[in-house]
Every structure is written in C-alpha cells, then in structure tokens.
Design brief:
The structure holds two protein chains of two kinds. Chain A is of the alpha/beta class. Chain A contains 16 helices and 14 strands. Classes of the chains: A alpha/beta, B alpha/beta.
C-alpha cells in the first residue's frame, strides 16, 4: 500500500505522510553520502601546513554541509601547560613533557568521540604531528573500536624557503612566542622541529598500504593517494589537490544597482539603473587602480552583471552557476506583494532563511551546492573578480569567512561595494571598498516576529525603502 | 595573456539576448560581437594532449575511451588516437607476437610510422579541427618515445598530460585479456589458448625496455600514475582546470562489475494531458508501474542496490512503492521549461511559435525562456554521473530529458542525438559495462502509458504553419 506524499512547507521536499527514513535524516534537502563518521588524521613535522590544511578543509566541508570540526592537539597543550618556555618541552627524553603531550592527545580524542556521538558531527580533523607509527597505530585502534573511517593527510616538505615562510606567517604570531623577538622565536622553533625529526617515520608505501591516505609533497606539486574509501574522501582528495598557497586576491561585488532594485522587486533579469551604470564605470576605475596582474573576471548569465562587467573593457566569463537565487513564484515581486500573496511562505522564510525554498524556486542551501564548482575553481585560480548577486555573494563570502548557515543569509552585501579578500595566515583578510555611488539598500533583516500568525506590519517591519 | 581593463573605458556596449541560448551578448550594428565566453567546462587556451603509458593489457584503451566519452559529454571536444588501430589498418593481417620483438627492425619501422601518422592526425585535430583534447593511446613505454611526443607537443603549442597504468596483478591482466584482447581483430582466427599465449609473449616484448614514469627523472612532467586498477595514484604537477578534472574523474572510476538501472517515474497526471514539466503525481497506470517496478527489482536480486530519485513528486511516489531507502537528488529534477512549464505543445505553438521553432532547430542548445537547455542539464548532471561512476548497483528513477542526458553519457551519444533518444515511460534500461562500452537491456514493464516522445518535425523554420509544427506531437487527452 502506497503512502500518501506531502510536501514539507519549508524545504519543499516530498515525504510520505507518516514517519519515514527521510524524516530521520538530518533534515537536509541534499543527498547525504556519508554513513560512518570519518577521522582525518594529519601527519607531518611542524611548519608543514597541517593546521592550515585542517582549518581550510573544515571550512570547506562545513560550507558544503558536512558537519566538521578540528581538534588541534597543540591547543590542548597550550591549555594544559599555560606557559611555553622553550623547545626543551618537546625533547624526546623529556618524560614529563611526553606525559603531558600524551594526555593532551587522549583528551583531544575523547572530545572527538563526543563530537561524533553527541553533536552529530560527521568529520573530525585530528590536527597533530602524528609522526610516529606508534601514535598512528593508537589512533587507528581508537577509530576501529568505534567504527570510524580513518583518512591520513601527510604533508611533506623539504624546501627550506617554504618552511621559513610558514614559520614567519603563523608561528611567530603564535601564543607560544608572544613574548619573544623574531630571531629568538625562529631559532627556538627550528630546534622544536629538530625534536621531531629524529623519530619521524613517514607513512610507508609498503607497510601502510592498507591505510587510506594522501601524501602532499612540497605544497602540492606532487600527491600520492592510496585507497580512497567513499564519497567524502574522494571529495577531500579533489579539494586538497585544487588548493594552493600562491598569494592572490579575490574581489567580490554585486552588479550595479538595477531597475528592479529601485522598485524593491526581487529577482528578474533587468538592466542597470543610471546609478548602476555609474557604478560600473567606477568599478572599472577601481580595478585599474588596483593594478592586478592577470585578473580573471566572472559574471552570471543575468543582464545586470554582464552590463557591469562590460564597463571594464576586459574579457569576462559568464557562469550560469552564478545566477541569483531563483525565487520561483515570487520572482519580480516586492516584499509587500509577497506578504500579501504568500504570507505563510514569507513567515517560513524568516523562520529558517537558509533552508527555506521558494515554491518552484531555490533555497540558500540549494545555492551552496550550485556554487560548489565555482568555489573549486576559485581555489584553483589566482586573481579573480566575481560580479554577482546578493544571495550568491552571501554564499561565497560565507565560504571565505567561515560563516555558519545561520549567519549566511544575513551577511551584509550592499550594492556598489567591492570586497577584497586576501588569504592570510589561517584565514582571510577582508577590505570593503564603497565606490561612493548611492544605491538603494536591499538588505532585509530578520524581523522580531516570525510567527505565521503575525500581522503584516510585523512582517514588513524590516523591509528597506524603495520606490 | 594579460587582462588589463581599458584605460578609458568606452561607453558600455549594448546587450542583446541570443534567442536560442538566451545568453546576453554585446552587439554592434545589429550583430553580436564575440568578446565574451560562456563558461563551458574547460577554459584552456592551448589544447591538451593526453598520452597513455603502460604495458599491454593494463587498461590504457579502456581508460582512453572512457575519458574521451566523459570529456565529450561535458562539452570538451575530445578524440582518441589508438596507435594499435593505425597498425592494424596498415598491416591488414596480424601474424604473431614476433612482430613486436625488439629486434624486429621491420616491425619497429612500421610501428614508428604508425605512431607518426597518429601524431599527425592529432595535430590536425587539435590545430585545424577545433579539437580541445586528444588522447594518444599507445604503450609509450620508453622515455625516448615520450620525449619525442613531448617535443612534438611543445612545437605545436599543446600541453601534455601523461596517464600511466601500472599493474602486476596476474588476475587482473588475465581478465583484461579475456575481456578485450580475445575479441580483437588480431585474434579472430585463433582459439582462446593460442591467443592468450601469443598475447603474453607480446607483453614480454615490451617488458625489458619498459621505463616507468620516474619520481625524480620525470619530476617536471605532468602526469598521473594509476597503480593496481585505482588502489593507488601518484599525481604530479597538475597544470590547469582540465587536467584537474581528468585526475578527479580517473580517481573515481572503477571496474567492479555492476549494473545501472535507468527509468522514468510512472506515468503522471500531466503526462496524460500532454503537458510538460510541472510537479504532478502518478496516474493510476503510473501507480501500477511503480508496483511492477518493485516486483522487477526484487526479482533481479541485486545486492546492495542504491535508489536515487529527483525531488519531484512523481519520481518519489514511484520509489515509495519499492519500500527501500532512497536518496532524493535535486540535480535529477526534470528540465526547467521556464515560461512553458505545464503547457501542452499546442499551447506553446500558439503562445510562443518562435520559441517552438528555435527549439526544433537546435534542441540541445535551446534554452526555454527563464528555463534551461539540455546543455544546462548536462552541466547540472555532472555530479550525478561522477557519483554513478563511484557507486556500484544503482537504480535511478528520473525524467525524460534527464534520462536522455544520462543515457547519452553511457552510450556515447552526440549532442545532436541526445535530445531525441527514446526513453519511453514504464521501460527500464539496464546498463552493464562490458569490454569498452555498455550493454543495454531494455525491459518494458507495462505497455500502458502515453507516448511522450516528440520527433523533430520536417519543417523547423520560424515561418512554418502551426500544422507543420505540431505534426509530430504525440497523442494525449
């Protein structure tokens, strides 16, 4: 007997009326391909980019909807020991030091297990040197007992310039060296690396052939990949093979103000208003002033972004994936009209703006998936200017700035403002440039009352002004 | 190439929307200008030459053909050049492995000649015929031969990417020989034992001079070394987007035997009315089909079958009848017909006769106003294809246009053929990889369903009469 289907009001997903497998899932409208939780275990000497990779990978996985958390053993050590004296702590014959480090690793593993069992985590990154077979065997045992998959990521680098740059970028600013001068800190850190070198046993291609791992050589010029198990590991490998550390900047901007923007209408495919056209000109001037070598310019397939790019007088590429969120039946309506025609939809959207899908349209969650290839290509590229749309820009920005799905739909991306993102240390520096051309505000904050039963006035309280 | 914006930005050019693809392009004097590029997959400026490396029976041709099929499907014009084929064309008759002996001077001369002929055709394809990727499928087992190819590529401005397959597992090699060598034209007149014996000696001819890609000596080359049928990969110096995609693809394919079942949802309410798109439920006959599908699947006795649907009601209703867990995937949704959603063809002809004609002129590239094209659909479906490659036994319950795109990938159909592939309701296609291609079994579970297949009419001119436009519309309520 077939069960009747009903469409969930928020996600617009068809589900059988009485409880089903679907309801037990994490309430996501995208397919879940992971079953067993996965531990990603970093391996490598200090200053090989393990933490950089850990944080970046976690950011990516979280953005695509895979709950991920990093467990940095060094952090646990800093909390246990409070004050770092010098590299002697890491000497192999320092019994007290060894005991503390072992305890920290154990504490991190304990929290990791809790993340999986109590917090619905799906991937945990165990960020530590893990340079001995003994330590790795311990981790494998721990994982096996609990049914976790294990994937090792080993970073190998013998280029002294890269290592020095690494130390410069992230170690000197570490809490461990807050009270040291540069020269002292550098010396101490090099000796710290020395403590690990003697006992470092890299993952071995023969004895470890049953393990799943990727070895990254010299920041990505070469990779060795062994026994990829499952979808998420395959995605991780692809991601790791596409990222790079060459300095560059990414410029994000919306199209210039459009005719529909002026009228307070969402979506559509209108052209630029006169002020929008002036912004396009100003953008050209700004970009020229930035003096960027070999800049790639990307737009969506919508008229307003293309018109904006046209003013640059340079080559640009159109990506359909950069199109604005499809508002379905609400396309080209004002918020007032949406409130009038679809008050329940309007309320549901305020209740969960990330997951809410417009009838016959999309959700922010859908957009993240649509934009994933764009992010992947942005990782591959160097200097890029992306001319896009409000919701699109929020999604991209959330990726670079590690914003949660709760924050993402409310990120401020005003018209006529360029955001310059420059990767720095473990994150991203953001510089906003408002190009001084007036435009309407299109940012609608979440109102206080999100109840379906609310008054129109409550619903429309935060709607920005328009014609 | 430097991309510096103009110092004095000229007045922005007027934009016009191309009527077929609905792409905004600048125009001058009423004509579209070529200045922008549409994001297709690969933005390489120089063409790429993929060079296989490996002893015989290591899967080079399997990889070459599969990779070529994938790249063409995602829109990258690709062709493979199999040197063995050139040799067969030249020699006409294959006598024995002796031809391949390293001391057979005449044999060597002929093989060299064939390789050169193939490279010449590569050059023509990439430089003159608009090809973007050429796959040079040969053993290429010596460093000397690879250097020759590398220099050839450099002279012509092609990027080079090596794909080496290394395998020492005798079972795999044996299976390989059985699957593809015994049926080769070289062995049509031999019995199995003879053929296997000769082929093994053929492999031996290459073994002594085989120089595998070396981590040190070849560190400046771009390559992927595939070891033990994908258990292990060594990837060196991936240079650009297309190479990155190739590596990702090669790392996701496998050769474990399995079957992929493709079918559409059961007949829907809108199907009966001859209306396209929408999100209606199953008709009574559609529900019947769902039951029959459930019985069929159970009878197939498939181990660990994954079931995928779209997020549209009709595919989900169909899957529900199977009473097994299934994954809903938005990328499997039917093509978005934009302003034509839920219309009958007759209505489209009445309200949008120009659009209707354009669609018949180029059904693959035609994009519905505020909707999608088949070309868009292929891009959208690429992650589904990638996951299908990773998986083993899968049943995909989808839609007409979607199924056409997936089928075109598995059966290597061109963009022109794709939109006219026959995917009738209530019919399951069972695809089983075999040798270099795919075996298709068509199982019609019930004859009771409307026909939704509209052939290309003879007259596709915008000026045609309604009657001519509607000539091929299938019957409906």
């Amino acid at each position: 007997m077939q069960k009747e289907l009903t469409q969930t009001p928020l996600l617009k997903i068809w589900v059988p009326w009485m409880g089903s497998n679907l309801n037990r899932r994490r309430g996501s409208s995208v397919p879940q391909f992971t079953n067993a939780p996965t531990m990603i275990v970093m391996v490598g000497l200090p200053a090989r980019g393990k933490t950089y990779i850990s944080k970046k990978l976690a950011r990516y996985l979280n953005w695509i909807g895979v709950p991920t958390k990093v467990f940095n053993v060094g952090q646990y050590r800093r909390e246990a020991v409070q004050t770092y004296k010098n590299f002697e702590f890491f000497r192999v014959d320092n019994e007290e030091g060894m005991a503390i480090r072992k305890a920290c690793a154990a504490a991190a593993l304990k929290d990791l297990a809790a993340y999986f069992t109590q917090e619905q985590g799906q991937v945990a990154v165990f960020d530590a040197t893990n340079t001995t077979e003994e330590r790795r065997a311990l981790i494998l045992c721990f994982a096996k007992e609990r049914g976790y998959k294990v994937f090792f990521v080993e970073s190998m680098c013998n280029d002294p310039d890269i290592i020095a740059e690494n130390i410069q970028q992230v170690k000197l600013g570490s809490p461990d060296y807050a009270d040291r001068d540069t020269e002292e800190a550098m010396q101490d850190f090099i000796q710290r690396i020395g403590c690990y070198e003697a006992t470092y046993v890299p993952i071995d291609d023969k004895t470890d052939r049953r393990l799943s791992y990727i070895k990254i050589f010299n920041v990505g010029s070469r990779y060795l990949v062994n026994r990829v198990q499952g979808h998420i590991q395959s995605r991780i490998v692809y991601y790791l093979m596409n990222i790079h550390v060459t300095p560059r900047s990414i410029y994000l901007t919306r199209h210039g103000e459009s005719e529909l923007n002026l009228l307070g209408r969402i979506g559509g495919d209108s052209g630029l208003s006169p002020r929008g056209q002036r912004y396009a000109q100003a953008l050209a001037g700004f970009i020229e002033g930035q003096n960027i070598s070999d800049l790639k310019v990307w737009t969506s397939h919508m008229k307003r972004t293309i018109q904006t790019a046209e003013a640059l007088g340079a080559q640009y590429e159109q990506w359909k994936a950069l199109n604005e969120i499809d508002a379905g039946v609400c396309e080209e309506l004002t918020y007032e009209e949406i409130q009038e025609k679809f008050p329940e939809e309007f309320a549901l959207r305020d209740q969960d703006k990330f997951r809410y899908r417009y009838p016959k349209g999309e959700s922010y969650e859908d957009m993240v998936h649509r934009l994933e290839p764009v992010i992947m290509e942005l990782e591959r590229q160097e200097n890029v200017l992306v001319v896009c749309h409000q919701a699109v820009m929020r999604c991209l920005l959330a990726y670079f700035l590690d914003k949660s799905s709760g924050d993402l739909p409310y990120l401020r991306c005003p018209l006529h403002t360029v955001l310059k993102l420059t990767p720095q240390a473990y994150g991203c520096k953001v510089e906003p440039f408002f190009l001084n051309i007036e435009a309407v505000n299109t940012h609608r904050d979440r109102p206080a009352n999100v109840d379906v039963s609310r008054e129109p006035a409550d619903a429309l309280q935060t709607v920005p002004d328009h014609i | 190439m430097e991309n510096k914006p103009a110092s004095n930005p000229a007045k922005p050019r007027e934009l016009t929307q191309n009527p077929l693809k609905k792409i905004w392009m600048p125009y001058k004097n009423g004509l579209p200008e070529k200045h922008t590029s549409q994001r297709k997959v690969c933005m390489t400026n120089c063409p790429t030459l993929i060079v296989t490396v490996g002893l015989p029976a290591r899967g080079k041709t399997y990889i070459s053909k599969k990779l070529t099929r994938y790249l063409n499907w995602i829109g990258v014009p690709t062709r493979e050049f199999n040197v063995g084929q050139y040799r067969r064309d030249y020699m006409k008759i294959y006598k024995s492995f002796e031809f391949f002996r390293p001391d057979n001077e005449e044999g060597l001369k002929i093989r060299q000649h064939c390789a050169s002929a193939a490279l010449n055709d590569v050059r023509q394809y990439l430089s003159d015929e608009g090809g973007q990727v050429a796959v040079f499928d040969a053993t290429n087992t010596t460093r000397e031969r690879r250097l020759t190819i590398f220099q050839f590529a450099k002279q012509n401005g092609f990027k080079v990417f090596f794909v080496e397959s290394v395998c020492e597992d005798p079972h795999v090699i044996q299976e390989n020989i059985v699957q593809v060598k015994l049926g080769s034209p070289d062995y049509t007149n031999c019995n199995t034992e003879e053929a296997v014996s000769d082929f093994m000696k053929r492999i031996q001819c290459y073994e002594n001079s085989y120089q595998t890609l070396d981590e040190v000596l070849d560190r400046d080359l771009s390559y992927i070394k595939i070891m033990d049928v994908g258990r292990r990969y060594l990837v060196n110096r991936v240079l650009d987007h297309i190479q990155s995609r190739i590596v990702y693809y090669l790392m996701n394919i496998h050769i474990t035997p399995r079957s992929i079942y493709l079918c559409r949802h059961g007949e829907s309410e809108l199907n009966i009315k001859g209306r396209i798109g929408g999100d209606s439920g199953l008709s009574a006959r559609g529900k019947e089909f769902a039951k029959l599908l459930s019985q069929f699947i159970a009878a197939q006795g498939i181990s660990d079958l994954k079931v995928w649907t779209s997020q549209m009601k009709r595919t989900i209703q169909t899957a529900e009848a199977l009473d097994v867990p299934y994954e809903q995937w938005k990328v499997l949704n039917e093509i978005d017909a934009g302003v034509c959603e839920e219309m009958m063809y007759e209505e489209i002809q009445e309200s949008h006769p120009l659009e209707f004609a354009l669609r018949d002129q180029d059904k693959y590239r035609y994009r519905y106003p505020k909707g999608e094209s088949y070309e868009d659909l292929v891009q959208r479906l690429e992650p589904a294809i990638m996951e299908l490659e990773r998986q083993e036994n899968v049943l995909v319950i989808c839609h007409q246009a979607v199924m056409r795109c997936l089928l075109a990938y598995f059966l290597d159909k061109t963009a022109d053929e794709l939109p006219y592939l026959k995917c009738p309701l209530h019919t399951v296609l069972k695809l089983t990889p075999v040798a270099y291609g795919c075996k298709v079994e068509s199982i019609c579970l019930s004859a009771e369903a409307v026909n939704t297949h509209r052939e290309r009419p003879e007259n596709v001119k915008v000026s045609r009469r309604s009657k001519e436009a509607l000539l091929t519309v299938p019957a409906h309520q």
